[in-house]
Amino acid sequence: MASTTQPPAMPSTMRAWVRPRRGPARGTLELATLPTPAVPTGLSPDVMIRVSHVSLQFSTEMTMKMLPNLPFTGPWIPEIELSGEVVAAGEGAPAEVRDPGTYVVAFQSIPGAVLMGHGVMAEYVRLSGSQVARIDPAVDLASASGINGAGSTALKMIRTAGVREGHTVLVNGASGSVGSVLVQLCRIRGAKVVGVASGGNEAMVRGLGVDEFIDYHKHDPLPAYLAQQYGDNPFDFVLDCVGTQALFVNSPAYLKAEGAVVNIGMLEGIGVTTRNVLFNSWLPTWLGGVPRRYIIFSTPPARDDAVYVARLIEEGRMRIPVDSVFDMEDAVSAYERIASKRARGKVVVKVRSD
């Protein structure tokens, strides 16, 4: 029998950041008033969420500069991951995220957010229950907003590499949003971790559990230092969250022959990175290719990963570091902070005003 529960009263409009044209955040983003999404009813698998915090992605500004608005998509709203509170849900949604008041983390699919512009930088979002995971109310919502992006990416990196107890890994960009999670997950798996970051972030990175710390400013060029220090005891894996091409090119000097460089970064821009990926992946050694494996992949969020990372956080075994939290009205400044490349952990926008 269909439910007779009446949908909750909702405001007819909401605030959301939109991009009406292509360009950088400072020149294009506008805080607009939009219609609130319809409340899911009946057998719908969807969940309506009142957004608490949105975690920014480093790639968003690059996307805003490159991709034009498509004429049939409506207002282009940025971002893919959030924390918040369930307002209502259809009967087809997972049971654990149906009850109003349930604290959750959620994500929009990358095609939905990037191509269609159906992002989550808004006061209310409606998403499929397959993209929503319950979290304990005790978990800080600002930190939790980074579970899907940073958590899923770091988890996929160590699973792809096969990091396990007894391995020694280098994490480049250990103070960043993904690198800071990656350090903790590697330690949970029993690996020895050498973290690379700016010297100003040493205390933060050591607090995450690295066994050794390298200040890339002090030891420049970094590959030469790694060859000198680790040539006799090479790494099992190099996990690069920055996208430093020289780390791969010179890796035979400090990476085991059966090891691999796993890269998710685009430090040198999308064009140069694309060229590097092609050469790194396909150029044979007899033509000058590097005799080490190079792995790069897309990292769409996954609900199962979010559930796993949330459990680790609830158990006190790891945390999602937060660099800074900006008010909804000041979201453009948040984008400028993440673009500075000096953020230590996640840059977050607080959407909820109370």
From TrEMBL:
SUPFAM superfamilies: GroES-like (SSF50129), NAD(P)-binding Rossmann-fold domains (SSF51735). GO terms for molecular function: oxidoreductase activity. Residues 27-349 form the Enoyl reductase (ER) domain. InterPro entries: ER (IPR020843), GroES-like_sf (IPR011032), Lipid_raft_assoc_Zn_ADH (IPR052585), NAD(P)-bd_dom_sf (IPR036291), SDR_fam (IPR002347). This is Enoyl reductase (ER) domain-containing protein. It comes from Penicillium alfredii.
